[in-house]
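User: I'm new to structure prediction. If I give you an amino acid sequence, what do you actually give back? Let's try with this one:
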Amino acid sequence: MNAARIQRRRLVLGSCGAAVLGAPLHALAQPAWPSRPIRLIVSFSTGSGNDTIARELAVAMTQSLGQSVVVENRGGGGGVIGTEAVAKAPPDGYTIGLGTSSQLVMNVGLYRSLPFDVEKDLHAIGLVSRTPLVLVASADMPGTLKELIALAKAKPGVVSYGSGGPGSISHVVGEAFAKAAGVQLLHVPYKGNGAALVDLSGGHVKLLFDGLISTAPLAKQGKLKMLAISGDRRSPMAPALPTFAEQGLRDYEAYTWNELMAPAGTPPEVLARLNAALNQALALPAVQARLAQGASDPLGPTTPAQAEAYGRAERARWVPFIRSLRIDNP
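Assistant: Good question. You get back a string of structure tokens that encode the predicted 3D arrangement of the chain. For your 330 residues, that looks like this:
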């Protein structure tokens, strides 16, 4: 090899070496994602409906991602504590959360300030499910929605409805129903929907918005009446129960929903992997059966962008209304 060729080879090797030395370390030894377990934070207690859904998803996503997805319950603060833990986690995909309408919509309208910004500090991975709510009445009340509305109009502010407390979903959708139906109802707050349901069964309060799982057994026992269910179709769990739309309230909705979420700044390729794993999980019969047991409908498959748009639309719809109720929260 002559001297000129040797010199050219040295220059080429030197350039390669300089490029390697100048490259970021993460670009040289980037491990395949995921390379360790993933935390899935649930902002509610073990055994709750959202916890049950999260655990079913965790099993399915573990198989898809090849790393353990471990559920961690971080309850308290009406979901604020768990949401903050996700929002302030490193945006590397190893901490994600199950976000609900309570956390991502209701709390935005209820609290004057939150330790995070839902739209700036969090990013949707994909939608999971939506659960309709049922308007139920005590056994001594009219048996149809039309008759109930007529009674409430004849007695403004007399017909009472219970809720899980000021600012709870059952409170907000109850006020939304009163507005949609053009009636005045008497709000009676309880410490949770369970206590309200007990009083409803005894006739001490007249109306309540709750889920099918808790109300259907009591309806079969004749302790309460189911008047209407939200959504665009009847539920297989109560096929005889008409929707609000079927009974004239076409624009009224009452439901809860959830999604998987990650800290803002999570790399798009990681969001895409998580999204694919979620959508694969939602297609599994075991996951669909678990959702059906909770009277929930899958909302997937969706992309992260579609899930983000859904959340923004829900906040645009509900937050101004919640704030108009002037519920006193810190």
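You can read the tokens as a compact description of the fold. Here is one thing that stands out. Residues 304-324 form the longest helix (21 residues).
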